[in-house]
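Course exercise 7: structure representation. Students receive a sequence record and must write out the corresponding structure in token form. The form below is the worked example handed out in class, using Exosome complex component RRP46 (251 residues). Read each field label carefully; the graders check that inputs and outputs are placed in the correct fields and that the protein name is recorded exactly as given.

STUDENT ID: A-19
EXERCISE PROTEIN: Exosome complex component RRP46
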Amino acid sequence: MTVAAPEANLGILPKSDGSATFKYGGYTVTASVNGPIEAARRDEHPYKAHVDVIVRPAAGAGGTRERHLESLLESSLSQIILVKDFPRCLIQIVLQVESVPANDYVNTKLVQAGINLPIIPALVQTAVLALLSACVPMATTAAAAVIAVVPAGGSTKAVVDPSQRELETAVSSHAFVFTAHGQLLLAESQGDFTMAEWEDAHATANKICCEAAKKDGMEMILDDEKQAGPDLQAFLRSTLEAKVTEDLQWR
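STUDENT ANSWER:
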């Protein structure tokens, strides 16, 4: 299956401090960021800012699925945002899922928590782009990938950005979030897998999210080193460069 290249637009919502839309793998997500702003008394922390993430589904009201995603994203994003620079403040991130691959929201009230995995990369990338658009200070950026371990003959193989059909037939699936420095922020897995299969999926996701960014600009990638997926760190840089160039143009 050929997946279209990711697309992103920054600063699309004029009434928020920062905003972004991200499209990839059949998912379209729009995010708005406001903050740092004064936090309500119940959310105040004397030494750091509170990161509040709200996930809104493409159809219907949010439920357990969205609450699970919000807890994962709050934990991950709090590690890269410089929250200690803004005590007693609130940074609010609202993520609206606009479209999803076919059949993803069938019987949404009965969807198990494991189905959250495929949408995690789209939510993470949109949130990071919106935070950059809002000029929220961060220690680093982050990138995410989903890997499915599918049967292949008598063994298994790792598939990057799996389709819905591949996810249904997969032995296991894994979502990873890495910083630009290669540190693991989040790892969520479902299914039956061995440690060797998990390490193979981890290495594949790390290559997509981090290793391509470490190569020198003039270094060529050999055929046997071809990227299994998009270079997400390069995508973040090119998106921001295009936005800065557009903003600096004389009109």
